[in-house]
Design brief:
By secondary structure, the chain is α/β, with parallel strands linked by helices. It is built from 13 helices and 9 strands. Helix 2 packs across helix 13 (about 290-300) and helix 3 crosses helix 4. The relative contact order is 0.14. Residues about 305-315 have low confidence and may be disordered.
């Protein structure tokens, strides 16, 4: 991407972040990829090991502000915005799962990351694990939150409605009927007004909500779907990562990625440590930031060998 285009993105990023710069006090960086430019933040010392945080829909790297602040004093932390999302460039076309995976791989390669701890949520699960499988020699640990990286026949009606031809686009892109409700329906504890506004800031028009809608449409529910084979390939190779440390932090009051999805992860990774949070929703990092930070701190310190022998299950329901 040429300098003028990058300058335009930088100016746009600063303008969007300005009202809540104290909540997101990070340097804006950009990496050219096929079809555009990824916005990312890269904080902390250039240690050999790196925390890589991959967001879902309809969030952006703002979701990881607490983790970045908590860990950047001693650890390198990278968090990106997917193409078409957050502060990244907005291609005038759909960006599907396979391309998102390619973009994360391109960023990892460009930054020369090693010993990567993947932090993922929502669509970040399929995307992040796709990248981990493509570069498995450098991915070491996994913190998994309310996500899936495998096909499922389960889809909430409120999401299915957003996939209806024409009406879905009108609702998601025209009426902001996905990003706006997400700031009210994804947590048990109401978000503060400025935090809610920050989540919505990059998605303020029909054009800037294209990828929000594409992500909804890109959920593969049948073999003929363009992303079905990509997701199945990721799912088929998840077992290749079984020997590596993994922690699940799950908001059990999530109406989308409910405890059935958590159980699917437990089945695939029986040695994973599990924090099942009875009083947290889909945005578990907003409802329980201390639990998420604590779990990540423990995970980063986990040895890479001799793991996977037994599973420790932690139920955090006050009982």
């Amino acid at each position: 991407m040429n300098a003028s285009a990058t300058d335009h993105l930088l100016e746009r990023a600063r303008r969007i972040v300005a009202p809540f710069a104290d909540l997101y006090p990070f340097e804006h960086r950009f990496q050219g990829v096929r079809g555009g430019s990824l916005h990312y933040i890269d904080e902390g010392p250039r240690t050999k090991s790196t925390i890589l945080a991959v967001h879902g829909n309809p969030t952006w790297s703002f979701a990881w502000r607490g983790l970045v602040t908590a860990f950047r004093g001693a650890q390198r932390v990278v968090a990106l915005d997917h193409l078409g999302m957050g502060l990244s460039s907005r291609p005038a076309r759909p960006v599907r799962l396979a391309e998102h995976v390619e973009n994360v791989v391109a960023l990892v390669d460009a930054l020369g990351l090693e010993d990567v701890t993947l932090v993922c949520h929502d669509w970040g699960g399929a995307i992040g694990f796709g990248a981990a499988l493509a570069r498995r020699q450098i991915f070491s640990r996994f913190l998994v939150m309310n996500t899936a990286a495998f096909p499922s026949g389960r889809m909430p009606k409120r999401i299915a409605l957003c996939r209806i031809p024409f009406l879905g686009g009108l609702a998601v892109r025209g009426l902001n009927g996905f990003a706006w409700p997400a700031t009210r329906m994804t947590t048990v504890k109401p978000l503060e007004p400025r935090v809610r506004a920050a989540y919505l800031a990059p998605y303020d028009s029909w054009a800037t909500r294209r990828q929000v809608h594409t992500f909804v449409q890109d959920i593969p529910m049948q073999v003929a779907h363009p992303s079905w084979s990509t997701l199945c390939e990721i799912a088929d190779h998840l077992q290749d990562l079984r020997g590596l440390p993994m922690t699940l932090v799950w908001g059990d009051r999530d109406w989308c990625f409910d405890p059935v999805f958590r159980a699917s992860w437990e089945h695939r990774f029986p040695a994973a440590k599990v924090h099942a949070l009875a009083d947290a929703g889909h945005y578990v990092f907003e409802d329980a930031p201390e639990v998420v930070s604590g779990a990540l701190r423990e995970l980063v310190a986990a040895p890479l060998f001799g793991t996977g022998v037994r599973k420790r299950f932690v139920r955090e329901d006050g009982g």
